[in-house]
Amino acid sequence: MTPRPDPADSASKRVDTIAAIATPPGRGGVGIVRVSGNNLAAVARALCGKEPAPRRASNADFRAADGSVIDSGLVLYFKAPASYTGEDVLELHGHGGTVVQRLVLERCLELGARLAQAGEFTRRAYLNGKIDLAQAEAVIDLIEAQTAAAARSAVRSLRGEFSAAINSLLEALTELRLLVEANLDFPEEDVDFLPRPAAEGKLARIAERLAQVFDSAQQGQLLHDGLQVVIAGQPNVGKSTLLNALSGDELAIVTPLAGTTRDAVHSTVHIEGVPLHIIDTAGLRETEDAIEKIGIERTWREIERADVLLLLVDARSGLGQAEREIVARIPERLARITVCNKADLAGLRPERHEGADGVAITLAAKTGEGIGLLRSELLRVAGWHPAEGVFIARERHLEALRRTREHLAAARSQIGRAELFAEELRLAQLALSAITGEFSSDDLLGEIFGRFCIGK
Ligand SMILES: Nc1nc2c(ncn2[C@@H]2O[C@H](COP(=O)(O)OP(=O)(O)OP(=O)(O)O)[C@@H](O)[C@H]2O)c(=O)[nH]1
Ligand SMILES: [Mg+2]
């Protein structure tokens, strides 16, 4: 683990100049080439024939080495440290053509820049202290958001709401640590800087706030990652029909023949902004058909990877021996909803029922009756509860929050032993600060920024 460098140090350090096309490939009204580095005034002069006034849009011709004009457009110049990366940044807004943008980029490379790696602009913003790690992650989450809910929560994280909640917890921990350390450092003093009831009270308040942050982050993680939902059951019970009904599309082939689906069919549907990655599988039965056998093996593989199993049965027959055999084989951690399909044929009304076998939903996938009940149940199983102020989060954040929670619990049990108490508080603080990236390994940074697009 290495601490983030002090921005004051990195500003004075020589950094190489990076450049990239920041707009997506293809034809567009505008194409932007972005450059970041130290002292870009010379690059601007060579390229645009002038040093643009900082933070002012102006017209310019972008020129090749021989003085010929490559493109004309707008130039924006941000002087360090008032820029996205914290370095000098030049943005060349030209025409959105593949070739012309490439020519502008090549000119920048000729003038000493090198091609930026994926996420390198944002990585520099992080290393220069412009944003923290949780905010940097929110940048890519905002770009990749598939729903309005995910985009809104990513913006919240990007604007620092998640980080502010973490920083306020870190401050509370610091304050508590100061008091404990004071007791440790001045044992002869008469004053007790942290009487036990005060320590207990402060610790309880921190734990309560941590629980709130955890809840919000958990909702954010659901918006980010969603759930893997696998539909399984005997052949012909209507699994593919259910996938089609949930996705509102004719994705999987439906026929009255048992054994229609061979390969797993994937589809992502969003319910209240939560992505559900739904997988339709080959019906589970004993078979001599070589292709179907492979399909059934794949079904089991999907079941092992899933978060939720929709066990489909025909409502006319209900859970039978075949389904019990399936249930006996599924991993214990897997959440399960029994879906009694073909309610129309069974003469049943759609309903939710909770019994010895867990929750069962009666519906008719073909007519769509009762699908709403299943959607709500899926959100309930996911632990989704619509809340204000959700910020986007990922498993990494939840893991850090869980570790913090464990150290706080350990601190509580050591409350009478000042040294151990202090140590657990220190560990809690360390775990928590991984979220904003106060301490982070290069591997982690590589993994986070490697998922970005070039030019961001
Ligand atoms: N009446 C009625 N028929 C349904 C319903 N759901 C599915 N079916 C019919 O049941 C037959 C089998 O449906 P599929 O969706 O292909 O079943 P499956 O479970 O995917 O079957 P395999 O892929 O062979 O395992 C089709 O003729 C569907 O139209 C329903 O709710 N009501
Ligand atoms: Mg099928």
Structural account:
The chain is 46% helix and 20% strand. It has 16 helices and 15 strands. The strands form three sheets. A seven-stranded mixed β-sheet has the order 9-10-8-11-12-14-13, sandwiched between helices. Strands 4-5-6-3-2-7 form a six-stranded mixed β-sheet, covered by helices on one side. A two-stranded antiparallel sheet has the order 1-15. Helix 5 (133-144) packs antiparallel against helix 6 (148-158), helix 7 packs antiparallel against helix 15 (418-436) and helix 8 runs antiparallel to helix 14 (395-413). The longest helix is centred in the middle third of the chain and has 30 residues, at 196-225. Residues 239-240, 252, 260-261, 280 line the site of magnesium ion. Guanosine-5'-triphosphate (GTP) is lined by residues 235-241, 254-256, 258-261, 282-283, 341-342, 344-345, 364-366.
